[in-house]
Amino acid sequence: MEKVSKAYAMAHAKCPRCRKGNMFANSMYGFHTQKMNKSCPYCGFVFEQEPGYFYVSMFASYALNVAEMVAAVIAIYTFTHNTSSPWLYIFLILGVSVILSPFNFRYSRVMLLYWLTPRGVKYHPEIKPLPTYHQNEGQLK
Ligand SMILES: [Zn+2]
């Protein structure tokens, strides 16, 4: 049974328990809303562990958004040295925020499951796939 590193599993939004099944059923960017699997297609782990569980990911999303906005301000100032007009900052920060919102949505949930769950989700590399699991089920296209 091959082990999957935590960094790889987080980057690819894999289930925290088996690190093989995808948390999301479709890709991050596209002309559709992101669809999260209710449970892991590989091991059956239920992602929403209690009602309202993913409300907490809003705080992680907020932290990601603030970090991105600060990085955007630093980048804008570094390239333009603009200190006279706030409009350049306002429009670019709003643009960065909108463009990265699917990223924040996805990785705030990943961070919640991997880092912010009080009891934690233990990694079980020995878990066997469900009989319903197919290799390409829920794979990113
Ligand atoms: Zn799983």
Structure description:
The chain contains four helices and no strands. It has 141 residues and is mainly alpha-helical. It folds into two domains: 1-48 and 119-141, no CATH class; 50-116, no CATH class. It is elongated, with a radius of gyration of 18 Å. The structure holds zinc ion (ZN). Zinc ion binds at residues 15, 17-18, 21, 40, 42-43, 45. The chain crosses the membrane at residues 59-80, 86-105. Pfam families: DUF983. It comes from Mucilaginibacter arboris. This is DUF983 domain-containing protein.
What structural class is derived from the secondary structure elements? mainly alpha
What summary fits the major beta sheet?
none
Task: Give the count of helical stretches.
Answer: 4
Content of β-strand = under 5%
Oligomeric description of these chains: single chain
- Count of domain modules: 2
Order of helices and strands: HHHH
User: What share of the residues lie within helices?
Assistant: 40-55%
Give the mean pLDDT: 90
Distance between the termini: 26 Å
The value of Rg in angstroms is 18 Å
Bound molecules: zinc ion
Keywords: Membrane, Transmembrane, Transmembrane helix
Protein name: DUF983 domain-containing protein
InterPro entries: DUF983
Transmembrane segments: 59-80, 86-105
Provide the fold topology:
Layout: H1 6-11, H2 57-80, H3 87-99, H4 101-114
Helix pairs in contact: 2-3, 2-4
Bound molecules: zinc ion (ZN).
